[in-house]
Amino acid sequence: MSISDRSKKAMEDLGLTGYEIRVYISLLESGAMAASSISKQSGVPYSKIYEVLNSLEEKGWLESDSSRPQQFFPRSPSTALEAMRMRSENNFRDSQAAIVNELMPMYTKSGIKERPEIWVVRGIYNIASKVGEIVQNCQQELLVALPGVAEGIAKQMQPVLRTLHERGVRISVLASDETNPDVVKAISRVADVRLKKVMFGGGVIGDGKHVVILLGESIGERGMVEPIAIWADHAALAGFAKDYFQYLWDDAKARKKP
């Protein structure tokens, strides 16, 4: 009996070794066996077989009796997985209690502040970098509000948007009707696009979790006018931004197909 690479990888991710997987599959195929038979069928060296069997029994994947020669029985996969889950949860709770009880007083005493959830980002390249992070890490849904001043960012985003589209990510772009028609046309190939006359800002929301909000322009340190934005992974702020995007989206007009 052979199993798919996906199942094998899943078992390895749960902590089973290659020998353990081979032994368990052999037991599923043939039922109860003695150690010598398991060694022959699985290909696991006899010098290693009891170590592997004891490990599998400890992990909850098999049982044994007291007969001579001793017989080993596979437990059902669902039973074994449930036992592993419960053991993992218990271990996590024990570790959590130990870590929190000892380290939290140290953290509190130090006066260290946690990383802020909201950052101010200045300059087209810094903003484009943060937007790129959100776009590249997006897995399900990308919402983009694109004012005219962000046209430069839009051009840089196009190759990544194509990649997301090919991965099946849903992309919605709300663009200013002042945006270059060629840019809008290019984006329309990979996203659902709507146009709006008046836009007082813009931004990007990835999977409803991470957001960049364009605030407009300000005078930088060198006296130059530069765009300014905020980046956040604050769940409430991202949720508010998504609700507002939907409001603007419902009020906008769909782009006419050429």
Textual characterization of the structure:
The chain has 258 residues and is α+β, with helices and mostly antiparallel strands. It has two domains: 5-75, Orthogonal Bundle (Arc Repressor Mutant, subunit A); 118-254, Endonuclease Chain A (Endonuclease, Chain A). The chain is built from nine helices and eleven strands. The protein has helices at 5-13, 18-30, 35-42, 46-59, 77-110, 124-137, 151-166, 181-188, 235-251; strands spanning 33-34, 62-64, 71-74, 118-122, 141-146, 170-176, 192-196, 202-206, 210-219, 225-232, 253-254. An eight-stranded mixed sheet has the order 4-10-9-8-5-6-7-11, with helices on both faces.
Question: What is the topological layout?
Answer:
Layout: H1 5-13, H2 18-30, E1 33-34, H3 35-42, H4 46-59, E2 62-64, E3 71-74, H5 77-110, E4 118-122, H6 124-137, E5 141-146, H7 151-166, E6 170-176, H8 181-188, E7 192-196, E8 202-206, E9 210-219, E10 225-232, H9 235-251, E11 253-254
Parallel strand pairs: 5-6, 6-7
Antiparallel strand pairs: 1-3, 2-3, 4-10, 5-8, 7-11, 8-9, 9-10
Helix pairs in contact: 2-3, 2-4, 3-4, 6-7
